[in-house]
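for the writeup, i need someone to sanity check this before i put it in the appendix. the sequnce is what the collaborator sent (i think, or maybe the updated version? ugh). structure was predicted straight from it, no edits. if anything looks off just tell me and ill rerun, i have time this weekend
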Amino acid sequence: MKAIVVGAGFGGLSAAALLAHRGFEVEVVEKNEQPGGRAGVYREQGFSFDMGPSWYLMPDVYEKFFAEVGKRPADFYELKRLDPAYRIFFGGGEVVDLPAGLEKDYALFDSFEERGGEKLKAYLDSAKELYDLSINEFLYRDYRSIFDFLSGRLIMQGRRMHIFESLEKFVKRHFESDEAQKIVQYSIGFLGGSPQNTPSFYHIMSHIDMTMGVWYPVGGMRAVVGGLSDLAGSLGVSVALNEPVERIEVTGKGATGVVTPAGRRDADLVLVNADYAHAELDLLDPAHRSYPEKYWRSRVLAPSAFVVYLGLDRRVEGLAHHTLVLDRDWEEGFDLIFDPKKAAWPDHPSYYVNVPSKTDPTAAPPGCEALFILVPLAPGLEDTPALREAFFERVLSDLERKLGDDLRSAVAVRRIFALHDFEERYNAYRGTALGLSHTLFQTALWRPAHLSKKVGNLYYTGQYTHPGIGVPMTLISSSIVAREIAERHGG
């Protein structure tokens, strides 16, 4: 049986490998010139930048994925644990490193507030309990009805999951200091949410980065993409690059293939890893869409992003591999992203700086530094060259002030990637960098389904589906949908 996978992102490559392992003939059709989707790579003058994901979290999920095909991550790439896990510049001028090791984390939180370490231990114990429940009962399941969502242990554990309380309120019940509160909330931005609209269940992220650790795959996230590509190829998957899908062909209630500029590709089933909204609205006739335009307009979208890839001709002091610059009034920053009435380019943004060359000598030429600067933005904003330049000047000036360093004089390579680029390169709906935010009613059952509601052999994987945003979640999504396809269609 032949399956065509639309898109060679993490979701497409991982699902293709799992299907091929189950005996399917698999072809992957990719719009762009390289695999990886948002996890592509930009190279110039000896600098190599991961264009999208840069945090390697939840190593257990990668282990579980590769184990499904009898492999290990170590068969394809090497991991290093980062210490410090990350550095934080707080709005008041304080700079803090979060070390690798819980005892050191407890001591750090003791410096923030009375009994801070004790409070952190209780918080992380709660987060671990929910993480274990999630992995065993929640994340690897598909949800087709409310009965699937509220069943078994989920009902028994529902009260302890605090699903109706926001992360912000939950955190403020546990910590008093601004520093402690921000450290345990910052990662929600990587899930495309704000502390105000994200369920407190997601405090599991603190267990993920503090207890499980922040890791780096040697060679960057592109090394993981390379590993998935090699795995898929070894299982017989073919990948066609530079071949955008223009249409998903449907006859009756079944998908029969896809149409690209190269012609028609026939298939017994189609699995989409491209942007879900794009596939529904642009690749399918209205009669075959599960979710019309008004559905997507009503969703809470995860942020877009302003990204700068900077190659510097010298080393820079003061930055760690991962550095977070958090504005004093970060609540206003979340309003500018998630409140449609306030959406705007921020005057005082919080942002993230990734410097892989601190760990990886292949990221930059000798004696040089590779910087990836990311600022979350509201999706759908106006995006012009003038706005980009003004914003770049604002962000770089802020970073220079914090470091006490003239970075401009060292710039050898510069590329800006923002809303329109997400739309054009990834067909991202309204330029979102991540998909749908993790609000309560955009979680599990309430995320777009893996199986089309109108076409019996059309499936979806990736960050829009359950369990959601992030590379580990995408791998889990592929495990779910590959299992479902195998059960319904055989191999």
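The chain has 16 helices and 19 strands. The first strand starts at residue 2 and ends at 6.
thx in advance!!
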